[in-house]
Structure prediction request, 369 residues.
Amino acid sequence: MTDDPRGTGNRDEPPDDEAALSARLQRLGKRLAQANRPSENGSGPRQIANLSGFARGFRLSTELVAGVIVGAMIGWFLDRWLRISPWGLIVFLLLGFAAGVLNVMRAAGVVRDRRLND
Amino acid sequence: MAVDPIHQFRIIDLFPITKIGNTEIFFTNSAAFMMIAVAGITAFLVGATAKRSLVPSRLQSAAELSYEFVASTVRSTAGSEGMKFFPFVFTLFMFILTVNMIGLIPFSFTVTSQIIITAALALTVFLIVVIYGLVRNGLRFFNLFVPKGVPIYILPLIVFIEILSFLSRPISHSVRLFANMLAGHITLQVFASFIILLGTGLGVIGWIGGSLPFLIVVMLFALETLVAFLQAYVFAILTCIYLNDAIHPGH
Prediction:
């Protein structure tokens, strides 16, 4: 197990970011597409591409929604606890939205992955 | 004839186990399928490693393949220090993979299509990350929320956003697995019900027309098999990424 059968490379410096996942998923998708190419079914590779697009879209949307939900929940509980309605919900919904966008950008590999995207 | 696509996700109480307060605790079909999965994994791994021959048998090389697959994932994502979490990640991966695959067998129950299961798994990962990170790094763990090179006047805002982003992890982690399995199984059921609706509604023409949704069901099934594997992989690798944050926070 000293060699890396899948050629993911660079294991001594662990990527510190979720951006690594999208890169890995892309590599997995490529490998799957390569593995499927010899099949006689002509629509094989296209379907794999569709799937990885579907999986990617699913991942990005859950990231965004999760951020908004967490913000809304914290805001709502702060409102009930401190009786400052509606300010907690307003502020934390916006912060949650920002966090969701940050999640999406990380998952899509837009931020903090100059090292990994090559 | 109406086919209810949600019916397959119903929890059935098989027999009562114990009573806590006024709530009876039942052994459900979900618990039964989880036990089947655990028994299956145990039988597979124990059986595969019983002989430990130098030239591996088919079963043994399957077990070695799954070990090396997870081990290389852990090592490349969380570093060699992350290997102390290998048993945890391997358990998660094998459990989710087996449960997803069992769920693909017709008339079986998909454990991961219940959000309480995936949420419990994701919260376990989350708590391990937080507790291990605090124990290992002390207060330096909170460096995770303070990115470097941010001007001081927007730092409070960024820290808030980073904390919310961190808290949203268990949600996206659990919802992704749950929603993928739920959506896939509902789609399969809906397209399969088209075959029956066409066949019983229109007679011979219906059976001929029903071959179209049948073709789609076959293709969807292949897709679902891939999704079942991919989601187990995604769950495992996200676990590694989160564990990496606990091991090396200041990055």
User: Anything to note?
Assistant: Chain A touches chain B through 44 residues (CB under 8 Å). Confidence is low (pLDDT under 50) at residues 1-10, 38-50, 113-118 of chain A. DSSP finds three helices and no strands in chain A. Residues 19-108 of chain A form one domain.
